[in-house]
TrEMBL record:
Its EC number is 3.4.-.-. The keyword Hydrolase applies. Residues 16-131 form the LD-carboxypeptidase N-terminal domain. InterPro entries: Carboxypeptidase_A_C_sf (IPR027461), Class_I_gatase-like (IPR029062), LdcA_N (IPR027478), Peptidase_S66_N (IPR040449), Peptidase_S66C (IPR040921), S66_fam (IPR003507). It comes from Plantactinospora siamensis. Coiled coil: none annotated. Belongs to the peptidase S66 family. Residues 206-335 form the LD-carboxypeptidase C-terminal domain. The keyword Hydrolase applies. CDD domains: Peptidase_S66_mccF_like. It comes from the Bacteria. This is S66 peptidase family protein.
Amino acid sequence: MPQPSYPAKPRPGDRVAVVSPSAGLPAIFPEVYELGLRRLRDELGLEPVEYPTTRVLGAHPADRARDLVAAFADPSITAVLATVGGDDQITVIPHLDDAVLRANPKPFFGYSDNTNLLNHLFGLGVVSYHGGSVLVHLGRGGAPHPVSLDSLRAALFTSGWHELTAPAEWTDEPGDWRDPAYLGTEPTMFPAEGWRWSGPATVVEAPLWGGNLEILHWLLAAGRVGPNADYAGCVLAIETSEEMPPDTEVYRILRNMGERGLLAGFSAVLVGRAKAWNHPRPLAAAEKRAYAEAQRAAVARALHEYAPDAIVVYDLDIGHTDPQQILPYGGTVRVDAADRRISVRY
């Protein structure tokens, strides 16, 4: 399969679609959503355009697909941003009009359940962007994190190489959207320990594929992942969600990918920092460390067994933790294990 091509980028002042192809959480948290929209206008200079299901909870998959297709088809729209993730976007994908998406490629931004659409666009030959959320990142309490905002701005408006750097702080303990004080309160941040590297001290430059690990497992079960040859030589990016899958499940998902022959084809693997805290499951500091260590060990075990020659980098800020850095999905990534540097071509 040929490497996907980059769609044209928006410019400040452009109209961009804001859609809810997964959960319509703006219906439940309108204040957080409106804060995200204001920052989209004020911080990024873009004019958000909503669609009929953007603020609808439980919209039919066909209706959500219709909004996505309309956003891509509209010549006045220059990018498409997801409000948030969810858990049923897999039911939306069959309703899409692929001919329209191919004929009108646009940058799409989303992560988590939006892995469904990122993977679908990859198959259509369109580069998209893993990361960004109107609710989570632009609607962050207090202010957007500078690392998240800088990465989103670069991915939206630039087309060259952008070097990722390990932030000095991070958190997986976001504020509660139900708390009246949320909008004015920044989350508690913790010192970051930096990335962890393993594998050969070589340089890999290749297209990126992957996303949320749980969603990738669903896509494989549903037959939505192409033949192994389509991903051979790619850089794999994986991260886990706020559902906090146990390390045994993380290992088994990767083992299944290995038994299929998929893992052996990846030249490098970027592993997101594990989210080890959630409002329904607020682990203590020692429990969080144990969870993250067990997840790293599970990933390392599977990669040692099925992709022993791959460069592996752990604890990147590319998923459900804060801040978040954007990855070009289908776009080019350079992983330099000799100098321990990672660059992405936005």
